[in-house]
C-alpha cells in the first residue's frame, strides 16, 4: 500500500521513514516534506500545502490510491483537515477539528481536565488585561518566590508560554498578549497557571476513539542552553525511554490521564482518534499534565521511531479501523529495548529569528544504529541548505543511554554549516 504523511519537519521525516519500513508499504508520500525526505529511497515529496490547498491534497490522495494519511503537525489538524478527508471518504489518522482543541485552545484543555478530574495545575482564564494583571499579583502573594505561568490560549508555534520569574515580567507578558496583540488572535485570551515543580516527560499514545496504545516514553530538552538555560524552543533534543516515568507513574498516567481523556472526549461527542501527547510534570512519582498536544512531539518522535522495530503502519491502520484493542498483541515485539538519543542541530539565532539558507556539509551516511533526520532543510540546485530554525536531528541507539549519547555526538562531528548550534547535554538527566 501507499501512504501519505502531512508535514515537513523532523517528526514527519521520522514517521514517514518508519512507516516505509513496514512490509506492506511500498511508498510513503510526504507533503511537503523536506531535504531529508527528498533523499530517502522509499519516500517522495509532494509539493502540496495541506492547509492552503486541501482540494489539491484530496485530488492527489484519490488519484494515487493512498491507503491512509497520517497528519504530523497541529496546524492542519486544528484547521479541520481530518474532517475534510473523512467527508471525502478517505482514511486518515489524526483527531478531528473539535478534538484537536485539546491542543489548539489551552482554555478548552483546562476546562476539559477540570471536568474529567485529570490532574493539572490550577488556572484562571482572562480576556481583560487589568484583571489578568491583578490575578498575577495575587498569584505572587499566594506563591511567593515561584514563577508565574502565562499562556496564550491559541496556537503560537511554541511562543505562547511565558514562565515569568518576576511579577513585572508576568505583567509584561499579559500586556503583550492581551493589549499588544503580540501573538494575534492566539493571544486574545490568556490562561494563568500555578507553577508546577518537578521533572518533565512526554507521554504519547495512539488512540482509536476508545482505547489507547502507549508508545515508548521520552524526555525533551526545551531550553536553548545546556543545563536548561535560556529561552524555550520547540525542543533541542530528546531521548527515550525516560526513566522518570517509573512503572508507578506509567500506571497513574494511564489511569488518571489517558483513559479519562478518551472517556471524556467520547462523552463530549468528539471521540479522540490520533496521536495524543500528554506533557507531564512529575514530582514524587506523581504526574500532572502541563499540556496536551494532538500530535507526536518533535524531536521526541525521532528517538521513538529509531526504537520502533514493529509494524508501525499496521498499528496506525488498526487505530483508523477502531480495533486498537487487538493491537495489544503487537506490543511485545514493537520496541528495540535499547535507548535512543536525538540531538537537534539548530540554526544561528534560533529561536528568535533563525538564519536560513546556509549550505550544509558533512552529513554522515546512516548506519544500523545512527540516523540523521532532517527538519529545516531543503534540497536546491546548490545542494542541501538550511530552511528552518531546527535543521537536523542526529539520532542514535546504544546499549546504555550513555552509549547512545556518545554515538549521537560522534555522528554529528563532521556536520557543518554557518552558525550551527546544539546542546552538549542531551540525555544527561536520564543518565544521572
Ligand atoms: P507548554 O507549551 O504548555 O508545554 O509549555 C511550555 C513549557 O513551559 C513546558 O514544557 C514547561 O517547561 C513550561 N511550563 C508550562 N506550564 C508550566 C507550569 N504550570 N509549571 C511549570 N512549568 C510550566
Ligand atoms: N517537543 C515538544 C513538542 O513537540 O511539543
Distance between the termini: 44 Å
> What proportion of the residues is helical, as a percent range?
25-40%
Choose one word for the global shape.
globular
**Count the strands?**
22
Beta strand %: 25-35%
Radius of gyration: 21 Å
Q: At the third CATH level, what is the topology name of one domain?
A: Rossmann fold
Could you give a short description of this structure?
This protein is of the alpha+beta class and about 425 residues long.
Structure description:
With 432 residues, the protein is of the alpha+beta class. Among the domains are: 2-96, Rossmann fold (3-Layer(aba) Sandwich), CATH 3.40.50; 122-193, 2-Layer Sandwich (Dna Ligase, domain 1), CATH 3.30.1490; 340-431, Glycinamide Ribonucleotide Synthetase, Chain A, domain 4, CATH 3.90.600.10. The chain has helices spanning 10-20, 35-39, 54-63, 74-78, 81-87, 101-104, 106-115, 129-142, 167-178, 247-267, 301-307, 312-320, 401-412, 428-431, and strands at 2-7, 27-32, 43-45, 66-71, 92-93, 123-126, 148-152, 161-164, 190-193, 199-209, 212-214, 219-220, 223-225, 229-232, 237-240, 272-283, 286-293, 340-346, 370-374, 377-380, 383-386, 390-397. A hairpin with an 8-residue loop joins strand 7 (148-152) and strand 8 (161-164). It is globular. The model has no long low-confidence stretch (mean pLDDT 96). The structure holds adenosine monophosphate and glycine. Residues 121, 149, 151, 161, 163, 193, 195-196, 200, 222, 232, 279, 290-291 line the site of adenosine monophosphate.
Amino acid at each position: 500500500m501507499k501512504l501519505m504523511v502531512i508535514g515537513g519537519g523532523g517528526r514527519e521525516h521520522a514517521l514517514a521513514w518508519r512507516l516505509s519500513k513496514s512490509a506492506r508499504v511500498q511508498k510513503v508520500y510526504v507533503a511537503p516534506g523536506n531535504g531529508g525526505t527528498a533523499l530517502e529511497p522509499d519516500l517522495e515529496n509532494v509539493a502540496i500545502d495541506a492547509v492552503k490547498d486541501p482540494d489539491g491534497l484530496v485530488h492527489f490522495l484519490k488519484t494515487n490510491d493512498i491507503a491512509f494519511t497520517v497528519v504530523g503537525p497541529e496546524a492542519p489538524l486544528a484547521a479541520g483537515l481530518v474532517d475534510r478527508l473523512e467527508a471525502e471518504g478517505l482514511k486518515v489518522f489524526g483527531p478531528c477539528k473539535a478534538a484537536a482543541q485539546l491542543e489548539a485552545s489551552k482554555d478548552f484543555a483546562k476546562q476539559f481536565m477540570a471536568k474529567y478530574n485529570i490532574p493539572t495545575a490550577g488556572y484562571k482564564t482572562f480576556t481583560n488585561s487589568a484583571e489578568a494583571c491583578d490575578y498575577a499579583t495575587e498569584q505572587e502573594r499566594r506563591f511567593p518566590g515561584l514563577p508565574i505561568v502565562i499562556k496564550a490560549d491559541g496556537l503560537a508555534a511554541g511562543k505562547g508560554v511565558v514562565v515569568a520569574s518576576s511579577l513585572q515580567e508576568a505583567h509584561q507578558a499579559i500586556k503583550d498578549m492581551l493589549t499588544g496583540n503580540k501573538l494575534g488572535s492566539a493571544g486574545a485570551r490568556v490562561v494563568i497557571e500555578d507553577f508546577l515543580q518537578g521533572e518533565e516527560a512526554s507521554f504519547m499514545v495512539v488512540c482509536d476513539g476508545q482505547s489507547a496504545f502507549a508508545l515508548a516514553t521520552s524526555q525533551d530538552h526545551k531550553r536553548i542552553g545546556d543545563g536548561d538555560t535560556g529561552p524555550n524552543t520547540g525542543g533541542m533534543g530528546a531521548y527515550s525511554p525516560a526513566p522518570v516515568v517509573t512503572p508507578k507513574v506509567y500506571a497513574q498516567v494511564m489511569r488518571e490521564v489517558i483513559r479519562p481523556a478518551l472517556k471524556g472526549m467520547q462523552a463530549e461527542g468528539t471521540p479522540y482518534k490520533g496521536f495524543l501527547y500528554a506533557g507531564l510534570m512529575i514530582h514524587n512519582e506523581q504526574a500532572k499534565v502541563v499540556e496536551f498536544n494532538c500530535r507526536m512531539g518533535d524531536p521526541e518522535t525521532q528517538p521513538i521511531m529509531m526504537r520502533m522495530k514493529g509494524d508501525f503502519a499496521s498499528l496506525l491502520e488498526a487505530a483508523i479501523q477502531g480495533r486498537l484493542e487487538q493491537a495489544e498483541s503487537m506490543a511485545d515485539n514493537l520496541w528495540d529495548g535499547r535507548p535512543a538519543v536525538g540531538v537537534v542541530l539548530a540554526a544561528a539565532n534560533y529561536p528568535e529569528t533563525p538564519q536560513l539558507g546556509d549550505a550544509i556539509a558533512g552529513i554522515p551516511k546512516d548506519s544500523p544504529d545512527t540516523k540523521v533526520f532532517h527538519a529545516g532543510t531543503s534540497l536546491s540546485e546548490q545542494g542541501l541548505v538550511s530552511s528552518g530554525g531546527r535543521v537536523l536531528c542526529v539520532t542514535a541507539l546504544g546499549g546504555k543511554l550513555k552509549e547512545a549519547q556518545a554515538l549521537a555526538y560522534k555522528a554529528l562531528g563532521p556536520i557543518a554549516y554557518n552558525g550551527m548550534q546544539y546542546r552538549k547535554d542531551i540525555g544527561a538527566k536520564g543518565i544521572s
